[in-house]
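Researcher: For the annotation table, I need structure tokens for Glycoside hydrolase family 43 protein. Please keep the output clean. Sequence:
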Amino acid sequence: MLSRRHFLQQSAAGLVALALAHQQVMGAARTYTNPVYSGSFPDPFVLRHGKRYYAFGTTGQSRTSDGRIFSLLTSENLIDWQPTGGALLPPPEAEGADFWAPEVVEHAGTFYMYYSKGGGAIASSVGHRLYVATSQKPEGPYQQVAMLDVPESKFTIDAHAFRDTDGQWYLFYARDFTDTDNGYRPGTGLAVDRLVGMTKLAGESRTVMRARHDWTVFEKNRTMPLYDNRTFAEWHTLEGPFVRRHKGKYYCFYSGANFLTDRYGVDYCVADTIMGPYQDTGSDKGARVLHSIPGKVRGPGHHSHTMSPNGRTEYLVYHAWNEGMTERQLCIDKLLWTDQGPRCQGPTYTPQPAPR
């Protein structure tokens, strides 16, 4: 016969087991449906610091509710996001300027935000330059500390900092090329340079990839005030670089084509060393990693990579247009490394298992 003490111990153990089983069932059963944040959130970058995710998004000329630049969201699971104001304190001469594509890394206890500032996206006579801001906290506020000059380019955007295995940091970015040397198409392409002290470029830039395929065209017969109203028969775009080292090789992911169209999507090129040369064999037919689904998802791209809460599953974090094409919204989907190369299990628009 059980004593009252043993009965209570067994009952308590049973209740704990039942609660754990319930949590497991609920965790296994929980799903998400894109977008995971329904507000405007272009060019999303996600930083994981500790057990929290911080998402930073483009604001253009707008300001957040606290008067800052770049929208900031936080989450503990990649699907429940809370707005927390803005990240960047407006720097001098910010009025009337567009601020694009923030990315944040941590080095030696300081958080560095890289972004661009300049004119608008279409028919602007004002170029873009790269800048860096710093903060002692991942959420900011960030204060601009330096411009990262690329003298050979009037239009330089989408900075992405990458730390190699030896500890050296590099900055990947997108910049304009107006020539047709070696059969390349005029347009925005990708480059890389070594960072010096996190706030200066070494001046050793190398081209990562330029446009050479039909699918990356941004616009035909494009007249560009930035280049003295010169009209280009075709202007192409590769933008939003993001680098991953996988099985000893460097994969530079990027978004290609016109962000307003259903041709826009994510592809990649590969190199054996961080500075290249990079090859994009197999990319001639269109975006292989992530692309539109006609009638369902339009313009998915300008992404970043992060890991699930348990650190076992890699996710792409990207934007896609809402149905009315009035805003680009925050989406996530798994990334798989297949025998054919990296492939996103998306874009999805139906319920998916929640990240674990």
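Researcher: And a one-line annotation?
Model: The longest helix spans residues 4-29.
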